Amino acid sequence: MLNILVYGAVTSAVYAMLAVGFTLIFGVARVLNLAHGAFYGLGAYSCYLLTGRLGWPLLPAALVAVLFVAAFGVAMERFLVRPLRHSALAVLMITIAVGLLFEQAMYLLFGSEARNVPAFSNATWSYAGLDVSGQRLLTLGFGIVIIGLLWLFINRTRLGSAILALSQDREGALYMGIPADRIYAVVMAISAAIAAAAGVLTAPFLTVQPTMDLLPMIKAFSIVIVGGLGSIPGSILAALLLGYSETIVAYAVSPAWTEIVSLVAVLLTLILRPAGLLGKRAAF
Amino acid sequence: MRLALLEVADLVVHYGKALALDGVSLSVAAGELVAVLGPNGAGKSTLLKAISRAVPSAGHIVFDGRPLDDMAPHLVVAAGICHCPEGRHLFAELTVRKNLELGAYLRRDKAAIARDLEHVHALFPVLRARGAQQAATLSGGEQQMVAIGRALMGRPKLLLLDEPSVGIAHRLKIAIFAAIRQIREAGTAILLVEQDARSALGVASRAYLLEHGQIVREGLSEAFIRDDRVRRVYLGV
Ligand SMILES: Nc1ncnc2c1ncn2[C@@H]1O[C@H](COP(=O)(O)OP(=O)(O)O)[C@@H](O)[C@H]1O
Ligand SMILES: [Mg+2]
Q1: pLDDT tens-digit profile of B130-189?
Q2: Three-state SS at A188
């Protein structure tokens, strides 16, 4: 029981970190960013490069990795997405291209073998027959803090109001003098940074490989469909739902069955409630 | 002659191949209330959008001595033109208060913003009580008040008002026109687009008649009220 409770929470936190950024950039800029998994992978690989190849200590490496991916997201928005914004299909294609480019670049630079990223904590936490790595608990803690900070940012700051305004009525926001392009860049930076943070945090206990972007991409996508595209509360709710369902299935049936869970959830959602659990509601 | 606050010359707007504005010229002096009348599809909203730089156009727009032609939309707001659009475009899930605050997005003068919020509340007292309510839960007339108040929060020199009374209960319509008169009396110039020609001519000093993207009449409101064609088509007498 305790196993399910703790491992489910860790998985949910990772999923929420992946999904909020993905849903945010869709809700605000109407960009379905299929390179979102690449942000996650790029976070992990940047951290690997800095610690494993250049010998940096973990903390500065992690920070620089997250900032680098945020800058990468902004550059992608500015130079690849913005010129194509008139066509949703072209934007979709370019994000897929960036995702594939990530995989090829990592393959060429670092090969196909799995890479190690050091953990912030190598301790193990034991309680009532349950063993959890300190890194997993840290991931859970960071996940909660990051999402809490995002909530504060969106609801308590001037830039946050601009994000809300743009997600609810673009033309209205235009007449308020809200510079849409600048806000899109901010949102892209936030979205990329949170995904990269998830990559850095989970890299020690998951595999760092060129194809590592795919599974998180599928998860983020599933969560956002279940929660409702563009809805942050929806994606947090769906992250909890999927995180716990998968953990329960892993314990009750077999870990081999976990990947089926999100696909079933997506199918059920699309059939029963196509707008998602909290469909149409914008950010927070 | 006094230099106009807004001077529009030979404005042309296309939507794809369709011509929406075909060489429109008009002017608004500082503090003046000017009405633009015309049937549905004449290009009235397009005219206001072009002034806000929300749609691309050819021709010239000069505001307060500065050309707007190549200006980004948010700089137009900063220059002092606030647009209360057709259909209101409120931030439906945000509170009334937050909607009003967003109207002052580009301003940093906290004390003056607080004073302007007081002015808006004085103009539309119902908004004070509704402050914590989601904008979408208000009646159409109240939402229109939020939209006008939000535009005023930008502290405009020129207010663009697009069909502020469309689909609104009679009582609220009267309140809205009374507010429009008060806004003008406080010194803000207004370019008012309206289907209800009678109400518009009641508050405007001058008017333009727009049909098929062209100005076909212009003059003082009193002359408009006496104009046979305007009377027949737009005043229904
Ligand atoms: N976004 C648009 N795309 C294509 N055509 C448009 C668009 N907006 C308006 N139009 C067309 O331009 C003309 C003028 O529209 P509009 O300015 O909204 O008129 P009005 O406000 O006077 O009713 C109409 O024929 C309308 O169908
Ligand atoms: Mg119109």
Answers
A1: 999 999 999 999 999 999 999 999 999 999 999 999 989 999 999 999 999 999 999 999
A2: helix
Does some domain include residue A280? no
Residue B85 Cβ inside 6 Å of ligand 1? The answer reads no
Q: How far is CA B186 from CA A251, B33, B125, B163, in A?
A: 71, 12, 17, 21
Residue A187 lies in domain: 2-117+135-272
Please state whether beta strands B81-84 and B158-162 pair in parallel, antiparallel, or not at all (unpaired). parallel
Residue located via tokens 């809805």 = A231
The sign of the torsion formed by the CA atoms of A13, A18, A24, A27 equals: negative
Lookup: tokens for B146: 């939020």
Give the CATH number of the domain where residue B45 resides.
Answer: 3.40.50.300
Contact flag A171-B85 (C-beta cutoff 8 Å) = yes
- B97 part of a folded domain: no
Report pTM: 0.92
Contacts of B96 by beta carbon, 8 Å cutoff, 6+ apart: B127, B130, B131, B132, B133, B134, B135, B138, B146
Minimum CA distance residue for ligand 1 atom 7: B15
Split into its structural domains, chain A has a count of 1
Which residues of chain A fall below pLDDT 50?
281-284
Closest CA to A120 of A57, A69, A65, A68: A57
Instruction: Decide whether any atom of ligand 1 lies within 6 Å of the B17 Cβ.
Output: no
3-state SS assignment for residue A127? strand
The CATH number covering residue A181 comes to 1.10.3470
- Nearest ligand, CA of residue B210? 1
Query: Is A176 within 8 Å of B94 when comparing Cβ atoms?
Result: no
The reply to whether ligand 1 has any atom less than 6 angstroms from the CB of B15 is: yes
Q: What percent of chain B has pLDDT over 90?
A: 91
* Residue B143 maps to a domain: no
Q: Count of domains in chain B?
A: 1
Cα of B56 vs centre of ligand 1, distance in Å, is 13
Structure tokens at B67: 């050309």
Structural domain of B75? 4-89+156-233
- Span from the CA of B159 to the centroid of ligand 1 (angstroms): 21
Distance CA A66, CA A276 (A): 30
Residue B135 lies in a domain: no
Count of other CB atoms within 10 angstroms of residue B65? 9
